[in-house]
């Protein structure tokens, strides 16, 4: 979904005094250093393992197991979301960090979950229904006095509304007035008031040049041509200065508040983006990719105020009401953070997850912190993540959908490809000009990744294959299609969301086979 840049100069000016008051950290691990990234074991740096052991009470083997299980769970969850369609109710890792539970609304879907090696949980509401309920609240955010946010809680199969007082009546009234039934709600009381964590770096510090002074923020992750960070760290057109007081770049994209807290700074030729994160203990943690971790996964963040801390992903797609305005689509965690940690990077193993947005509490008594998912920043701004493998990860969604799919292979290759894909659906057209929606007339939830599909159509027919993604208004838009006679394949790399396939009989009749997957 294309974001509209929102100027936030006033928000940054507020933090300007505090920004320059901090003492800058040492330059170890910054762009001045030519040291190579820390040596990894099974894709996990020793420093990250140390933080996981400290914050989650894990042994080294347990930490590696949790991270490996998170990666496995992400792939299995995406496949099951596509396979179970409208029955899918969400997925999460249990408290042990290794058991994958998948909510479904039907017994057939439960069998598919068991076959995939996960634990099915029968629920009343699908994930699509819960997301629809949350969208209703997002539409009336201006009426949410006394509330600090809301999110879909997949394990309880309900929408959680966070209120600042013990009086739940106002929260319930707000939700029911928006059209969300009380039976689908839980009210959580928390006196914490989330706020953007201005004035800190995740990797290296940089300075936003403002009228009358500077404000300091943090580099999130390196991308081709610059870096991503929090949107509240500078308005579009603002120039930036690096840690060494040399001219660095210009803010080319900034969204805050609203639909995101995301920013992109394009750097000049004196700066070289590198695929590392500074852990503030003299080490550089490698960034190898951007595979999205599921709810329940272990995760770590870095910030110049507090260093590296770890915890667990609690929920995704949360709306948070900051004093500056509401922000949607954030990920909620139980990791602590403090002022100055904003913009900093979040890692699950060596996989980039997001940049620090804001939170409540501190690292003495604990708290909650929200981050902006990095895949959405990449997709919205058509950016490419720089990785430690020397190759660049593609953006999570192409800004311009491909006009048509790649040239289909020969018939025998197509049939083999269709049979090999894990999700299979069949259909039959009795007349030309008809359309059918798959899977089973519904849609499926998918994480960020590549959608692959294969359509096996009868000889002499023209069956078109269309992939659509649901937008924030509940309607579907086409993101990829394959036209023409005969069998065809389709491939599309997109961000997380709700998708569906539409098969169109442009000419001819008969039965077809559709195979698809998300990887």
Structure keywords:
519 residues, alpha+beta, seven-stranded antiparallel sheet, six-stranded antiparallel β-barrel, 9 helices, 19% helix, 39% strand, disordered N terminus
Describe the structure in brief.
This protein has 9 helices and 33 strands.
Describe the protein's architecture and organization:
With 519 residues, this protein is an alpha+beta fold. Helix content is 19%, strand content 39%. It contains nine helices and 33 strands. The strands form seven sheets. A seven-stranded antiparallel sheet has the order 9-8-12-13-14-11-10. The chain has a six-stranded antiparallel beta barrel with strand order 17-18-19-22-21-20. Strands 26, 27, 29, 30 and 32 form a five-stranded antiparallel sheet that branches. The radius of gyration is 23 Å and the shape is globular.
